[in-house]
Automatic annotation (TrEMBL), chain A:
The lineage of its organism: Bacteria, Pseudomonadati, Pseudomonadota, Alphaproteobacteria, Rhodobacterales. It comes from Pelagimonas varians. GO terms for molecular function: ABC-type ferric iron transporter activity; ATP binding; ATP hydrolysis activity. CDD domains: ABC_Carb_Solutes_like (cd03259). This is sn-glycerol-3-phosphate import ATP-binding protein UgpC. It comes from the Bacteria.
Automatic annotation (TrEMBL), chain B:
Residues 66-277 form the ABC transmembrane type-1 domain. One of its GO terms (cellular component) is plasma membrane. It comes from the Bacteria. This is sn-glycerol-3-phosphate transport system permease protein UgpA. The keyword Membrane applies.
């Protein structure tokens, strides 16, 4: 168990990176607090796995340092870092039995046989494979194999950190939920630092205390699920988290007023002079339909009833806008305007959130 | 959906049928024909039944040749398979040097058999060959035309030189297909180099390795040209393998009947061993699945 510090860390897969674009992982300073469960969320190819492999030592970073509890491990090999990692696709030792697979990391570290036996039994119970312990791993289904991989990741109790690289991709939905719960309880029990890479926001939000959102090789925001929801620091976060994602509309902002396509709305808070591309970000949850002269004129394209609420797909000056309407709302043709709840309006300049001026 | 019955499609296999008939079945049948007949010359043959087969089975000469053959195949398999794997493990995985290695490895495979024989025949000569001369200069008594061990060692080293590449290339292909995640997981699990080989690499290349063993077995069991060029089967009969013996019998002595019977038994042995091998291989695969 350790606090993991990343200092000026960056990585490029090219031997001589020229511009910032050549970096798969852009310069990054970050602390992973001991014992917390993190989810690393982002679209495919944004550098999540790269970051994970650097932490576990499978990859040597192009620049920067990695510290475990303040000790520099940048050049330490994987084994010395004592980390457990589970990969996206199952890795099992085909010719071994399930039992030997689970015992493998412990045996390699010379653990006591009676302890190994006990621990393997415990892990087998956790992943629900007690009945298949004596079977050869070859020929098992993909999700059984992945459960073995997970089990092998969890079998050591003394690891510095547990890293998961989209481990539930091949698992069926029911088992997914169950395993995630198991992982959470494991976290509560042992207090390992856990980093869980995923591109599935539900998985990230349910698993982690803190969610780290990555975009294009950069950490764009780290926070609790609530923070990510209410104050996305970057339009990508707003768009990526939430279903549907945040509405992003181009606007001119002047003080506490914003002008969108000729319509002026009040923001309820003041902003200084803004440069670059200015946008308003409002989640569909803070957007509602109205009639009359107030708000932005929209054209409703489609209404989707998803049970708990309705998603209204509308069009404002060529930009798609989504509105969440409570279940039971009658969507009538004279609802041709949308209004924003000022509490849920964020202002972005060049995709980054601008904090309002304190009055 | 109703399928129309159309048996005309059978005609499409005719070309293959002809090809197989002319390339394999008919030649084989002529051999079968000779094996059951005898002649007193003048191109007149008469029925001999299984006489030749009986004679061959009782012939010490054939058993000796078979013994040498099995010894030879066993020795070269025992050397080429581990050596091939070892070479494959140490070849670079990608980049310029990987290509260089691949080209170098395939070179021996491209050389015609009798050229390989000639190369080694000259290479080992005590008077002009680099190897033979050097050994003689070092005071080592080496002469493959007179010494039993020298002859065997030369023939074996030549085969290892010629064919280890094949095993290495097959094993290399098998190794290349192992996803990186396996090696990464092994590092995480703190597996030693030996365990990585034993539990990841070996199981993953088992399939191609079996094919390599089968190919090398069949090929070495039928070896003719190289030892014939180097030692001519000697000294004495010490490197007279089955094929060499067969040719001596059929062409040297013109004993067509015994040679034909010999050929058929030879063929059946190879067929049998390959079949057993294949069955064991597929069964192993299945059993591990359950």
């Amino acid at each position: 168990m350790a606090k993991i510090t990343l200092e000026n860390l960056a990585h490029s897969y090219l031997p001589k990176p020229k511009s910032e674009d050549d970096f798969a992982l852009k310069e990054l300073n970050h602390d992973w607090v001991d014992g917390e469960a993190y989810a690393l969320l982002g679209a495919s190819g944004c550098g999540k796995s790269t970051l994970l492999n650097i932490i576990s030592g499978l990859l040597h970073p192009s620049q920067g340092r990695i510290l475990f509890n303040g000790r520099d491990v940048t050049n330490a090999p994987t084994t010395e870092r004592n980390i457990a990692q589970v990969f996206q696709f199952p890795v099992v030792y085909d010719t071994m039995t399930v039992r030997d697979n689970l015992a493998f990391p412990l045996r390699n570290r010379g653990a006591d046989p009676t302890y190994i036996k006990e621990r393997v039994q415990q892990i087998a119970a956790m992943i629900g494979m007690e009945d298949t312990l004596n079977r050869k791993a070859r020929g098992l289904t993909a999700d059984a194999k992945q459960k073995i991989s997970l089990g092998r990741g969890m079998v050591r109790e003394d690891v510095n950190a547990l890293l998961f690289d989209e481990p539930l991709t091949v698992i069926d939905p029911h088992m997914k939920w169950e395993l995630r719960t198991q992982l959470k309880s494991l976290h509560h029990e042992f207090g390992h630092t856990m980093i869980y890479v995923t591109h599935d926001q539900t998985e990230a939000l349910t698993f982690a205390d803190k969610v780290v959102v990555m975009y294009d090789g950069r950490v764009v925001q780290m926070g609790t699920p609530q923070e990510l929801f209410e104050q996305p620091e970057h339009t990508f976060v707003g768009y990526f988290i939430g279903s549907p994602g945040m509405n992003v509309l181009e606007a001119q902002v002047d003080g506490d007023k914003a002008v969108l396509g000729g319509t002026q709305i009040s923001l309820g808070k003041g902003f200084g002079p803004l440069t670059g591309k200015v946008e308003l970000g409002v989640r569909p949850e803070f957007t509602s339909l109205s009639s009359g002269d107030v708000g932005l004129p929209v054209r409703i394209k489609r209404v989707e009833d998803v049970g708990r609420h309705k998603i209204v797909r509308a069009d404002f000056n060529g930009t798609d806008v989504n509105v969440l309407a409570p279940e039971g709302t009658e969507i009538s043709p004279d609802l041709n305007r949308i209004v924003f709840d000022p509490a849920g309006v964020n202002v972005y300049s060049d995709s980054w959130r601008v904090a309002p001026k304190v009055a | 959906m109703n399928k129309t019955v159309n048996q005309k499609a059978w005609f499409l296999i005719l070309p293959v049928l002809f090809l197989v008939a002319f390339s394999a079945v008919i030649p084989l049948m002529t051999v079968v024909n000779y094996s059951v007949q005898d002649t007193f010359g003048n191109n007149k043959f008469f029925w001999a039944g299984l006489e030749w087969f009986k004679e061959m089975l009782e012939s010490e000469r054939m058993w000796n040749a078979l013994g040498r053959q099995i010894t030879f195949s066993a020795i070269i398999l025992a050397i080429e398979i581990p050596l091939g794997i070892f070479v494959a493990l140490n070849m670079p995985k990608k980049g310029f040097w990987a290509s260089v290695c691949l080209v170098l490895m395939s070179l021996p495979l491209l050389i015609p058999w009798n050229v390989v024989g000639t190369i080694w025949q000259i290479f080992g000569r005590v008077d002009i060959g680099l190897l033979g001369y050097t050994l003689a200069a070092l005071g080592i008594d080496y002469n493959y035309t007179q010494d039993f061990y020298a002859a065997w060692i030369t023939v074996i080293v030549m085969d290892v030189w010629h064919w280890t590449s094949l095993v290495a290339l097959l094993a290399y292909a098998g190794l290349q297909s192992i996803p990186d995640a396996y090696y990464q997981a092994a590092k995480i699990d703190q597996a030693s180099r030996w365990k990585v080989f034993r539990f990841i690499e070996l199981p993953k290349i088992m399939g191609v390795l079996m094919i390599a063993i089968l190919l090398r077995f069949m090929d070495s069991f039928m070896i003719y040209t190289e030892p014939f060029v180097v030692t001519g089967g000697g000294p004495g009969n010490s490197t007279t393998f089955l094929s060499i013996d067969l040719v001596k019998m059929a062409l040297g002595q013109f004993d067509l009947g015994p040679a034909a019977a010999f050929s058929i038994m030879y063929y059946l042995v190879i067929l049998l061993v390959s079949y057993v091998f294949y069955t064991v291989m597929t069964n192993l695969d299945k059993r591990e699945g359950n």
